[in-house]
Amino acid sequence: MAPIAVTPPNHSGNVTDLTQDGIKTALLKTAPSQANSASMTDSLTATPPNEPTTAAANSQKPTPTSTAAELPTLDASKVTCTYTQTPRAVPVVGSPEMASQKVCTDHMIQAQWTVSTGWQAPSLQPYGPLSLAPTASCLHYATECFEGMKLYRGHDLKLRLFRPQLNCRRMLMSTNRIALPAFDPDQLLALIVKLCATDGKKWLPKDRPGHFLYIRPTMIASDPALGVERPKEALLFVLLCCFAPMGDMSGGIKLLASQDDMCRAWPGGFGYAKVGANYGPSLVAQGEARKKGYHQILWLFGDDCTITEAGASNFFVVWRTQEGRLQLVTADLAEKIVLDGVTRRSILELARRRLTGTSEGVAAAAAQLETIEVVERKFTVFEIEKAASEGRLVEAFAAGTAWFVAPISQIHFRGKDIEVPMAKGASGAYAEFFKKSLQGIMWGSHGMESHEWGHVVEEE
Fold first, then answer.
1. For a 10 Å CB count at each end of the chain, is N or C smaller?
2. Are β-strands 404-413 and 253-257 bridged in parallel, bridged antiparallel, or unpaired?
3. CATH for 253-456, among 3.30.300.180, 3.40.50.1860, 3.20.10.10, 3.40.50.300?
4. Cα–Cα nearest to 19, from 124, 176, 183
5. In angstroms, rounded to a whole number, what is the distance separating the alpha carbons of residues 306 and 298?
6. What is the CATH number of domain 18-64+71-83+97-242?
7. For the ranges 42-56, 192-206, 222-236, which has the lowest average pLDDT?
């Protein structure tokens, strides 16, 4: 898999792809340094290089395409800082305030964009409400996208981000999809790091190793015109929010397969982008599933009940083929209905590196795991049902920033329960391996203090 692309690949074969052409035009106008990027046409299924450092990434960028009147682009070096005079109290661990997911840190990042002036200098400023016109485009036409990330206080007492370059590149792809202005992902990352460095020391003190803050970079169209058209004004902002430790899913989560009247995403739509419109319509079904005793919806698509996502997380299954091969299977990205999750990507890369027997093969032996074939393809819930009935289903799990790696114990589909084995009692063996391996990188433990996926933040 290549780095998360600026635009999705065009599989339609059409001479003209209006969405892709529109994205290229917008890139030329709002972020010309990205317009000629190789990721514009990279296939999402190519082999990924290691992520470059910011300096290396800058040195590899193509020469920007010149425009008639180039407007300012997003530039983190121009950030202005205004520090709060009324610092907020840090919630006590285990308190209702911590669990409310409403308490944010002292500061936030903002950057304004207009079609006539380009990107204004970003600011680090006290956290507070936004000012929007009631006619703002984001309130009427869902011109809003975001990312979900975490700032970790490691067990080695350092602050870390996990593969933040991927989140920043994916956010660029999301803004492209909904007609918001483009930006250099490295500049967004620099702003995120600035906020984390400013508030991390106080809000993730060193006496709280193993805790995290949730990071929410967001872009909205603030254009006050009610016309249904490409927004002429936008606001980028980044905030840090207190979250309690996520609930223990070690007993396994129960999924309710979606019904025929439900659809989360569809080919040619925007399921691959992290936009608000993907989430609001799913909340009714999610609420009903929880009333019935299930944790989330397993989203299916089409008459063949193709598996897409589990709630807002990517879905994985481990099974044996009828020929006896052990496989790790997840939905591919070809139809653009599944999010290219950072945790998903990391699990696939880790599996190919350490569990296929082709490179660091000692990992499988050390974990007493059988080597496994990694497969990304379209597959259906009927295949899972058949594998379970034939004793070939090994385990299943969901993966994402919020749930992280959560074992699945049951799937309810058309009146029947598919029981999913959990070889370790509270988890499957492969889910446990991926969870422990990635946790070591995120928390700076188990010899992973200097792993390339862990981005250390220097505290101010």
1. C
2. parallel
3. 3.20.10.10
4. 176
5. 10
6. 3.30.470.10
7. 42-56
